């Protein structure tokens, strides 16, 4: 993917992730640390009980991070499939005897379209992630 297109996607995704991190993940981290500290304050619990308590505190954040990672992987896979389709179209054009400028132009338009389509998917992906993050039990 051309650098400019890649930079556009990366910037849009980074903005989304930063937003999710500041609005959701960071609050979950705070709750996790407070919960873990409370586990450590239980002076009558055994070491095993304290460790189990801490693990329970970490579970919501681990689920949240897994959810975000999974969604980003699906997004990347879809974008990769789209750009591979562009590569196939370019190869077909090359095999038909087209010249390099025509092939470059096709790739630029095709990859640009992939990027535009996938950047347009980010708001719905963000909404879905926020809803799922809000539904994780604390």
Automatic annotation (TrEMBL):
<dbReference type="GO" id="GO:0005737">
    <property type="term" value="C:cytoplasm"/>
</dbReference>
<protein>
    <recommendedName>
        <fullName>Protein FAM136A</fullName>
    </recommendedName>
</protein>
<comment type="similarity">
    <text>Belongs to the FAM136 family.</text>
</comment>
<dbReference type="InterPro" id="IPR008560">
    <property type="entry name" value="DUF842_euk"/>
</dbReference>
<dbReference type="Pfam" id="PF05811">
    <property type="entry name" value="DUF842"/>
</dbReference>
């Amino acid at each position: 993917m051309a650098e400019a297109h890649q930079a556009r996607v990366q910037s849009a995704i980074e903005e989304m992730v930063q937003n999710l991190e500041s609005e959701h993940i960071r609050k979950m981290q705070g709750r996790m640390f407070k919960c873990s500290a409370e586990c450590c304050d239980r002076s009558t619990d055994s070491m095993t009980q304290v460790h189990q308590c801490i693990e329970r505190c970490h579970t919501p954040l681990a689920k949240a991070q897994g959810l975000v990672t999974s969604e980003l992987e699906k997004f990347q896979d879809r974008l990769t499939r789209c750009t591979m389709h562009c590569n196939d179209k370019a190869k077909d054009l090359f095999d038909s005897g087209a010249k390099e400028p025509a092939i470059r132009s096709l790739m630029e338009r095709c990859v640009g379209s992939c990027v535009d389509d996938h950047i347009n998917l980010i708001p719905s992906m963000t909404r879905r992630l926020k809803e799922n993050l809000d539904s994780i039990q604390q």
